[in-house]
Amino acid sequence: MMDDEQLICAALKGRLGAFGLDVRFRTPMRGVTGVFGPSGCGKTTILRCLAGLQRIPGQLSIGGEVWQDDTEGVFRAPHRREVGYVFQEPSLFPHLSVRDNLLYGARRAASRGVTQQIREDEIVALLGIGDLLTRGPQVLSGGERQRVAVGRALLSQPRLLLMDEPLSALDRNAKQEILPYFEALHAHLSIPVIYVSHDFGELQRLADTLILIDDGRVTASGSLEALQANPDLPLLHAPDAAVTIDGEITALDSSYALTTVAIAGGRLVLPGILGEAGERRRVQIKASGVSLSLSPPASTTVLNNLPFRVVSITPHHKDPSQVSIIGAVGEDGRGARIIARITRKSQETLGLAPGVSAFAQIETTSLAASPIAQTD
Amino acid sequence: MLEYAELWAPIRLTLELATITTVLLLLIGTPIAWWLARSKAWWKEAVATLVAMPLVLPPTVLGFYLLIALGPDGPGGWVAGLFGGRSLAFTFEGLVIGSVFYSMPFVVQPIRNAFEALGDRALEVAATLRASPWDRFWSVALPLARPGLLTGAVLGFAHTIGEFGVVLMIGGNIPGETKVLSVAIYEYAETLQWTKAHILAGGMVLFSFTVVLAMMLIEKRMARSGE
């Protein structure tokens, strides 16, 4: 068990109008913790309480520092909490230029004697906002504004970054444009992030740890990998159900533009040149892109073919034609766990049951890789 | 031309009165407007109503009570006593006090509206960027409320210049001390000095038109740049 120095601990219980919140969680002071749940389940309230913008009775401690403890009457005002907060809509100060927006928190942190661990030039480069600095926020696109808002929060040198659905106010293109920047931040900065979203796809790309919230309560929490492949959780039934696996680039095929990534129990071939040999990547495998066969296919267009041992079979909670099969890859059936979404008919025809060995064919189009978080 | 030189005294006095009153009102009115915009106290609307009273009260009623308050037996007389005087009524200082009350709603209301239009978000953002409440007020609330402050200042200034009833009640018509523009115009008209009345009245029309037009143009520009 980690001690409190390395944990974000929260226990909040109270009412807010007609809404009741009763949450309790501990999550590591590193990487991205995704808070996932339907709209109106209390996710944003949790973030607001962490920032001190709202008060619900309970305790909050961040890396051993107590920010709220109502048994002791402790409540730290928001401006005394070292948080960066990225709001749902990019809330830049309209009366300040992009650069002055960026430096608003930085200057105040510096005047309090906080050491500048996150540098302006580094943030400007990571977020690609160098050309915007002298402009006013009015002329920026939604995606650009949100990138500036993220940079502004980070430059206030927070110990914890809170992000409240930072992409939900953006259109699809802006989302796709901004996600790589978030991944780059994730990979380069060691600051812990709590990322609230109702979009599971977003969290699958960014989160290391997940907290699932429903109706003001924590329904499950743990590592992304463990929760994704947990047959008892509703995540398995989501249309974009997937698993996320850490891997290392082992080979690059420049003539076909393919990258080989080693994961526990096998190798995957991904489209594109994704980096250099030896670099680590997190690979996402969509359940809908995995099919199963009992013998290795003789000739196929599918590049990825891994031994697979069935661990569990879960019928879809709504669609009776579908099942989700969780299995472990590798000859010994002990490698990384992946999910295959197939028809119930195929499952019964092939006699797939827990313990049965098979082969998993994974379409390259259902694979995505993102940079991996810096661990220190 | 010499006979028109006397017109300068009331003009200068009026501008002095309006400038001092506007500065005082910005200093007093802004915190009141902030409190009215942000407070959750149930009785704040009662305070707002008090501030707004001069809008509906006849100036003579306001002037009557101010006269009593400023006179020898009121708090004004007591304050005057500290400086060796007997009363604040019929003095320039008394006029300033009266104008502050009289023009207060014209300054407080637009500033309050501007503070309310800010909403919570910008201030919350500033709080999470380590700005203390005092810092948030100066670095976010005031700059964003600029159009409201400008409107308040202009309305307060213009309204003080046009003040008549209250001045007559508490200031009288002492040249160089309380004889402001509106009173001077009244006097010239009464004594049939039409040319002088024309010059002052026409000047007021021109002045008011220019002020209101300038304010509208500036507000429009600010609104555009603040989008």
Please explain how this structure is put together.
The complex is a heterodimer of chains A (376) and B (227). Chain A contains eight helices and 21 strands. Chain A has helices at residues 43-51, 98-111, 120-127, 142-155, 172-188, 200-206, 224-228, 344-350, and strands at residues 7-16, 19-28, 32-36, 58-62, 65-69, 74-75, 83-86, 160-164, 193-197, 209-214, 217-223, 242-253, 258-263, 266-271, 280-286, 290-293, 304-315, 322-329, 337-343, 357-362, 367-371. In chain A, α3 runs antiparallel to α4 and α4 runs parallel beside α5 (172-188). Chain B is globular. Chain B is mainly alpha-helical and 227 residues long. At the A-B interface, β7 and α2 of A face α6 and α7 of B.
Descriptive key words:
heterodimer, A: 376 residues, six-stranded mixed beta sheet, five-stranded antiparallel beta sheet, 22% helix, B: 227 residues, mainly alpha, MetI-like fold, 11 helices
